[in-house]
Amino acid sequence: MAPVKKATVEIFTPDYWEEACKHLARKDRVMKRLIPQFGDVRLESRGDAFTTLARSIVGQQVSVKAAQTVWDKFEALLPRKMTPANVLKLKVDDMRACGLSARKVEYLVDLAIHFDTQAVHVNAWKHMADELIIEELVAIRGIGRWTAEMFLIFHLMRPNVLPLDDVGLITGISHNYFSGDPVSRSDAREVAVAWAPYCSVATWYIWRSLDPAPVAY
């Protein structure tokens, strides 16, 4: 991974991106058309693992704007930085006053406990297979397979994740490969055969075909 400075935030982009784009353009007619449309824009990762997952919990089932408002209030409760230990010191009533539901408070506390007790092996993730990381993450309350896969793509920047539960991916495959006709998971999996070993990159471009503004998870 190569660090890139943007303002005061350190942003990381995958070192395999150019190689992946060449592979996809060579193997897939849709990718050959899509990739040049987005220039040098690429997947970006920022922040630490705990903060990324906490943000994903706060943002569940609410708009981006509402999630940011709640997140800002939640973050303001902390004395210094967002750490599992600092979250565990917070009072439930104070967390609820930020706009967090009782369930999301429970999820955030469970997330903090998993990190604080090292029930998740953060330092070992770089050497672990995708499915083993997903297995650890879905054991945390409030984190399902989709969230775990987004974490693999946007935080760990794993190159070959195919999130078949993602509505945007299925919609984008329908529009780009099937003229808008309904697409099954099996259809999507068949399309993605040509993408391997860079399914994450192809998925990113499919998302961009629906919404050109890149997302930083």
Radius of gyration: 18 Å
DSSP strand tally? 2
State the low-pLDDT regions, or none: 3-8
Order of helices and strands: EEHHHHHHHHHHHH
Largest sheet: 2 strands, antiparallel
CATH H-level superfamily of the largest domain: Hypothetical protein, domain 2
| Number of domain units | 2
Instruction: Provide mean pLDDT, rounded.
Output: 91
N-to-C span? 16 Å
- Strands side by side in the biggest sheet: 1-2
Q: What percentage of the residues does DSSP assign to strands (E)?
A: under 5%
Structural class: mainly alpha
Treating each run of at least 4 consecutive H or I residues as one helix, how many helices?
12
CATH architecture of the largest domain: Orthogonal Bundle
The helicity comes to 40-55%
What name does CATH use for the topology of the largest domain? Endonuclease III, domain 1
Shape: elongated
EC number: 3.2.2.21
Pfam family, one: HhH-GPD
Catalytic activity: Hydrolysis of alkylated DNA, releasing 3-methyladenine, 3-methylguanine, 7-methylguanine and 7-methyladenine
Enzyme class: hydrolase
Account of the 3D structure:
By secondary structure, the protein is mainly alpha-helical. It has 2 domains: 2-41 and 160-210, Orthogonal Bundle (Endonuclease Iii, domain 2), CATH 1.10.1670.40; 49-148, Hypothetical protein, domain 2 (Endonuclease III, domain 1), CATH 1.10.340.30. The protein contains 12 helices and 2 strands. The chain has helices at 17-27, 29-34, 49-58, 64-76, 84-88, 92-97, 102-116, 130-138, 145-154, 167-177, 185-191, 199-210, and strands at 2-6, 9-13. A two-stranded antiparallel sheet has the order 1-2. Strand 1 and strand 2 (9-13) form a beta hairpin. Helix 3 packs antiparallel against helix 7, helix 8 (130-138) crosses helix 9 (145-154) and helix 10 packs across helix 12. It is elongated, with a radius of gyration of 18 Å. The model is unreliable at 3-8 (pLDDT under 50).
